[in-house]
Each structure stands twice: as structure tokens, then as C-alpha cells.
Protein 1
Amino acid sequence: MGSSRWFGITAKLLRSSCQKNTLFDNFLHTTPVRLKTTVKNLKGRKTSSQQWLRRQLNDPYVVQSRLQQWRCRSAFKLMEIDDKNHIFRQGDVVIDCGAHPGSWSQVAVQRVNATGEDSEAEVGFVIGIDMAQTAPLSGAQIITGDFTLPDVQQKISKILMGKQASVVLSDMAPRACGIKSLDHEIIVDLARTALTFSHTVLKQGGHFVCKLWDGNETKALEELMKTYFHTVKRMVPNASRKESKELYLLGIGYSKKMDKS
Ligand SMILES: C[S@@+](CC[C@H](N)C(=O)[O-])C[C@H]1O[C@@H](n2cnc3c(N)ncnc32)[C@H](O)[C@@H]1O
């Protein structure tokens, strides 16, 4: 079967399986169908944009995320984190900070049985928060807003209605300005904000995952996490781009008793 026909069928499948056009547009934005068209016009594009397109086309995680209907390739990072550390259980409540376009929330929804697909298991719940408008996702409640603002955090607490979360995720990242030390400081601040918020919502034994771009303050954050979690690990998932300084800190087994704040 020719590749264009094959991609056409994939796009058709995606269209029929997505309830909302906005969601389908998210997929279409990165489908090979559109990339193929765009690639024809490479000559008029900036070198950086040509490089981006070529990288997307040659990235197996991008290809697989389209085929498996994840909203972006980041899904593979969280799946690997969970496969190796078992952070999710069916019935869990998960807070996903920096959720757009939604692939981590998709993974969480699936792994905590938030849509009740497994009728014999407990049904979980996911709250996704992002400054960017995120397409609706069955099994998740999406909040659009800046997570660092108190009123956004209050909205999350309100949705929880006194329930505690089993997992807090932060894949929040600023738009990188290119000054590595500054980008590092900003992403560490976002992770710290998520960690501080965790104290108000995370249950005993719960887990915390945050994304960082490695730098001077990584060690200090890791040490801080050790005062709250039974085990703290660094992880660089296989899907993290080789040229990136991205890493994830995992706090496994939250203990309020260890909280020295
Ligand atoms: C790497 S993307 C997240 C990808 C997401 N985990 C997924 O799998 O679809 C980082 C996100 O963090 C969000 N972000 C950055 N700062 C934020 C803030 N203060 N509040 C909420 N979201 C924020 C950005 O808007 C961006 O969508």
C-alpha cells in the first residue's frame, strides 16, 4: 500500500474516533498528511522551520503518537515513567499541571480508569491545568489558567471537594528564551510551585513527578523532595530528545510526617 494512501486511512480513522473537531484539529496539526503538504513548500521556509519539520517526520515517537492517537509524543515519557515506577493505580485522582495539548492527561485517564472502561475496577479522575486552551478529554476536567495563581489552585481544590490526589504531575515548561540558566530557574520555580501545592492535596503515600531542564538548582530541589518523599529518583525517559537537558524528578511515597516546612 502506498504511504500517502496509508496516511490517508490513518487520518480517516482519527477523524472518526475523535468526538470533537477541535480534538481532530490537534491531530491534524501534526499528521503526516499535513506535514507532507508542507514539506513541498520547504524552500520558502526559515531554516529553523525546515529543521523542525524534518525532525518531526523522522521522529519515531511522533509517528507512533499519531498512530496510537496520543495528542503528542510526550505520552511516551509518562508511560515509561509509570511502567518503571508504577505511579498510577485504577481509581486514582491525578492532577496534571501543564497539561496542554493533553497527552499526559490521556495516559493518566487510561491508567486510572477515569472513563470507567474497566467496569470491574475503581474509576479514577484527572484534573488537567494549562495556560493554553486544551481540547476536552473524556475522564478529565480541564482548567485553563496560570497554575501559579491562587485562584487557579483554588479551582482545583474546589473540584477535588475534599478528596486527596494520589499523583501530582508537573510537565509545566516556560517558552524557552534560550538563556539556559534563566530557563532553568523558571522551570525550577514552576516545579517548586507544584510541589508546594502538593502539600495541600497529595495523600499519604502519593507520588509527584516534575520536569526540569538540568542546571544549578536541580540538586537543591531533589534534596527538598527527599524531605517529603520516601524515594526520590531522577529519570530521563527514552523519548526525551537527546539534545535536550530535560530530566524528571520523581517523588515516590509522600509522607506528611517528613514535611519539615
Ligand atoms: C511540555 S508542555 C506539556 C505537555 C503535556 N504534558 C502533554 O503531554 O500534552 C508544557 C506546558 O506547560 C504549560 N505551562 C507553562 N507554565 C504554566 C503555568 N504557569 N500554568 C499552567 N501551565 C503552564 C505550557 O502552556 C505548556 O502547554
Note: The radius of gyration is 19 Å.
Protein 2
Amino acid sequence: MIKYLIGLLVSILAVAFIRAMRGMLMKSFKEALQQDAPASASSNQPPKSGTRLRKCNTCGTFAPETRMLRHSTGGAEIFFCSQECEKKEA
Ligand SMILES: [Zn+2]
């Protein structure tokens, strides 16, 4: 009976240990992914295809399309680098 209890305890501890290790691995993996994303974005490499530079309609600053505020007026699209520029134009 004692052997059975010890075996059960060891298996429970082993499962808990494996789960903890897996959780740590997944956490570090996610952190590595999150750290990688901004690093590649802030590097001097050219933007990925699909990220076009757009000119702010108010101040003329160029910025990636994904960071700009987009307005659709009629068929044309205009872009603003910030909410301040957006307010000035409106
Ligand atoms: Zn602007």
C-alpha cells in the first residue's frame, strides 16, 4: 500500500514538474516572439512588402501606411501622421 502511495505521489510530482517546465518553455517562447517583433520593426531594414510610405496630408511627413490615420474622401484616400494633423486638416 505504501509503495502504491509513493508511486502515485511520484507520478503526480512528475506530471506537475513536466507541466511547469512546459509552461516555462511556452512563456519564454512567447516572450522571444514578442521581443523579436519590435526589434525587426525598429531596424533599418526596408519595410516589408505591403507597408507603403504615405505622406501626411497636413505636415508632409512620410510614415508607414499602417501607422497613419486613414481617411477616405470620395474615391481618394488621405493620411495623417497624428491626431493633431487630423484635427488641423478637419
Ligand atoms: Zn502630420
Note: The mean pLDDT is 85.
